[in-house]
Amino acid sequence: MSSKVAIVTGANMGVGYGIVRRLAREYPASFFAKSQAAEDSQKPLPIQIFLTSRTPEKGEKALKDIKEELKNDRVLKEDGGICELRYHQLDITSPDSIKGLIDYLKENHEGVDLLINNAGIAMDGFDSNVVRKTLETNFDATLNFTDEMTSVLNPNSRVVMIASMAGLLRSLKLSADLTRKFRAVDSVQGAKDLMSEFEEAVKNKKPKELKDEGWKPTAYSTSKCGLIAATRGLAEQWRKDGKLFVVNAVCPGYVNTSMTKGNGQLSIDEGAATPVKVALEDLRGKGLAGDGGSKELSGMQPSGGFWQEGAEVEW
After folding, report:
1. Domain extents for the chain?
2. Is 141 a residue whose pLDDT tops 80?
3. What topology is assigned to 4-124+136-171+223-313 in CATH?
4. pLDDT in tens, 70-119
5. Of the residues 87, 104, 220, 254, which is catalytic?
6. 262 in the Ramachandran plot: left (φ > 0), alpha (ψ -120 to 50) or beta?
7. Which region, left, alpha or beta, applies to residue 243 given φ > 0 means left and ψ of -120 to 50 means alpha?
8. Which helix (H) or strand (E) segment is 15 a member of?
9. Is 220 a catalytic residue?
10. Could you give the residue ranges of the DSSP H alpha helices within 109-218?
11. CA 19 to CA 21: how far, in whole Å?
């Protein structure tokens, strides 16, 4: 009997670590597991959850720690459960690293059923260098990696983009013209064009001129706004292309991690709650309708939405 496969990026610490641990706990009883049941037995198929990170030493240690923490839950294969945790090195900014993972998956597995794009950065300061590095990881690399992974995604697989409430249009309060442009995005390229426009404005404009054009001087929030727009665009592209993949953006909340410098109010387990819900639960009929939210195709999960605190919210 084959296993389902889940990939979680940037998972050696913080929210990604919490997502791996919570996935293992919740998968066996989840809708996703039941929908992937073996036809001959109607029992949920086992799942292999890959914790990935740039640094193997940190990733292997995280894997060991999570396994120890889950012993009493009896969800892991070695403890009598149906979940298997594994590690694979991945740097989403490295083409060679991405190729290494995909080659491994093609050689050893029938495909990937769940992809959670958690890898991201938050830098101090604001200038063209900070903007470039932030967009490189949070936007460019995330979308490129997702595009490369479509070659191994199975039909009805789910993709979860870890975004942020800081990227909501109502939070950023961009100009009316920019807000209209973001809401009109219906392709990944549309989102890329807006991020290029932002980057060029930062390079060539003084802070006051940047604000006069309607932008806010924040690299992280703007990168996440772009990712939410790209998620909507990607969902629309996949619908048009007839690709049976589901993609949604999610805010984990203000989590106490190194990224928030310890100021977050939520634990990593609490931060993992909404990402794991969107990954594993039956969301049909629970999304927003129309331009403000996700769309559903017959029999499919809602796709293209933004989820926060367990519910889809208007972007």
Report:
1. 4-124+136-171+223-313
2. yes
3. Rossmann fold (3.40.50)
4. 999 999 999 999 999 999 999 999 999 999 999 999 999 999 999 999 99
5. 220
6. left
7. beta
8. helix 14-26
9. yes
10. 128-135, 142-149, 169-172, 176-183, 188-204, 207-212
11. 5
